[in-house]
Amino acid sequence: MATDYAIIAGGCFWCTEAVFQSLKGVLSVESGYTGGASAHPTYEQVCSGTTGHAEAIRIGFDPQLISYDDLLDVSFATHDPTQLNRQGNDIGTQYRSAIFPLNASQQRSAEQAIERAQQDHAQPIVTTIEAFIEWYPAEEYHQNYWDRVGENNGFCMAVIPPKLQKLRKKFADRVKD
Fold this sequence. Notes:
Elements: E1 4-10, H1 13-20, E2 26-34, H2 43-47, E3 54-61, H3 68-78, E4 86-87, E5 90-91, E6 97-99, H4 104-118, E7 128-129, E8 136-137, H5 145-148, H6 154-170
Parallel strand pairs: 6-7
Antiparallel strand pairs: 1-3, 1-6, 2-3, 2-8, 4-5
Helix pairs in contact: 1-6, 3-4
């Protein structure tokens, strides 16, 4: 089984991680930082908004079971790609909506996904397609956050269940049992 990777940012990585861990064909989801200038940033540095990094997830997936295009469509359906540098109450460039293609094929797919998603939004999509430079895993306490402690976090309880509900409604055939 071959593993491909996708790197997507769509707000708080705790929230996006929970969505993608629910999909058939997704083998791993790692929270981390990308798109910035500093090497090995910390969560506190990224949250300051001064590093240029986005909170993002790196998704390992089996392309025989789920496509890169499907992952992008799920991303657009489960966050608001019309909000510039924010998702709800999370404000700053670290919460931007962005895709970080890892090759030319993913670049084309990202461009096409934005066109598809625009049909579902009256406001312009502000999701950026950014060159991938480096991936920095987030600190261990951010990994698998929803599964470990998310239900004890009021922010997560307000944001993640509605995202999971959208996922189940629109992509029922793609959700793990």
